[in-house]
Every structure is written in C-alpha cells, then in structure tokens.
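Sample entry was shown:
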Amino acid sequence: MAMRIDGKAISAEIRTEIREETASFIAARGYAPGLAVVIVGEDPASQVYVRNKAKACEEVGFYSEVYRLPTETAQEELNALVDRLNRDEKIHGILVQLPLPKHLDETEVLLRIDPAKDVDAFHPYNVGKIMIGDYDFLPCTPAGVMALLERSGIDPAGKKCVVIGRSNIVGKPMAMLLLHANGTVTVCHSRTKDLPSVTREADILVVAIGRADFVGADMVKPGAVVIDVGMNRRADGKLTGDVDFAAVEPIASAITPVPGGVGPMTITMLLQNTLTAAKKK
C-alpha cells in the first residue's frame, strides 16, 4: 500500500517556518510583508480561495488587502488598480484571481503587474527566469509539488517523470522544475498517442488535467510516485482528483490524496513567494 503524502501536515510545517521568519523580518525591518489580492466578479470557487488567502496571511503575520470588484468592472479600472498597487510601498505581492470575467483581458492584466511583485509567477519575465533556472518566484502549485516530493524524501534525479497536462499554470512549469531537479521529463496532453504506455514508464507521475478519476490502475507502473493536482466535484458533491485513488493507491509507492494533498500547499507557496518578494525589496 502506498505511502500517503500528507499535504496538510507538510503545509503546516512550512507555514510554521514562514511565521517564524516573518516575525524576524518584522523585528528587523519594522513592517510586515504585504499581499494584495484582487478578485473581479462572483465566482464561488474564487471567493473561497480569496477568503483562504486572507486567512493564511493573518496566520503567518502578513499585512493583506483584498479588493473585491464587481463583474462589470472595466479594463481601465482594473489596470489602474494594478498600477496603484505596483506603486504601493506596503504591498510586496500582487495577485489577481483568475479566471477573470470574459470581457477582461487576462494577459493585459498579468503583464501590468510589476515582475518584482508577481507572486503567482505568471509574468513572462518570471516565466523566462524559471525556464533558465534562475528564478525568484515559482508558480504556487508546481512549487508545492516540489516541496511535497522533497519533504517526503523523493528525489526526481535520474527518474523518469511524466506530467499529464501542458497548461501554463501547472503542466509546463511543473515539467521545468522536474527537469531542474535532474528528472528525465515527458509531457503528455490530449494529442499524445497511446497515453497509458507512456504513463506506465513513469517513476514519478504528475496529473493535472481536470478530469475526475481519469488515471486508473492500468496507467500506473507498480511502485510509482503519483501526484494528483486535480480538483473535481463528483455528481454526489464529493471532491475527487484526476487519479482514481482507490484503484491506484495499492499499486503506487507514494500518492497524494484529494483533498489534503497538493491543495493545501498552493496557498503556502504563495506566502513563501510574498515573503521572498518582501525580503528582496
């Protein structure tokens, strides 16, 4: 039976470290690391994330501001708010909650955020730095996966790593971080031919496609480490990942559950990025 990688416990451990570092930072500098979160519209999942982010900031001793804008907010208004936060000395990290309402241009907004305050690491400047392996910030979810592996004693060096999914937010940066950790990396997607034959070669399998229970036992090599980034709701309302946990757990050597695996790490890595941004100022 696989070792369950406990994201809640590892996240709590890292947050304790961040809280202690923050206390030293405040003592030395006289002010707290500051995070501004901007949310446009009423998306329920986004509302939950934003509440959790504000709570997490409080927990580690950060200063935080939340801007809740109506769905009909104009591009100019949103741009002006980002410009103001770029200039605000109290704010070290800016996060614009995605997705934005359809009439707003996400790319335009992300490009406006000062790269030194881009704690989501979505600005092309920061994406480029990740590519060459000389970065200040990492996208929160892939960074969380790497922290889970490291703190569970799993080293990607020399291992075959397969990532299912090629999004700019998870799949691509995930592949790059595994490569920087000396893994041999394959990225699979909707056009990959005979997907199970590729995934069965993986020593470390990371799944990030947003399809409930997509990866079954026939897609996993015995003894593989399986990291499930998916977060889906079943018809009965229960949360499930992209991996069929019950079928895969008996085969894998280690696996992340959903919920309680990768999820708790994402906001923790956002806190880490904000602290890094404040230190670099």
User: Anything to note?
Assistant: The chain has a mean pLDDT of 96. The chain has ten helices and eleven strands.
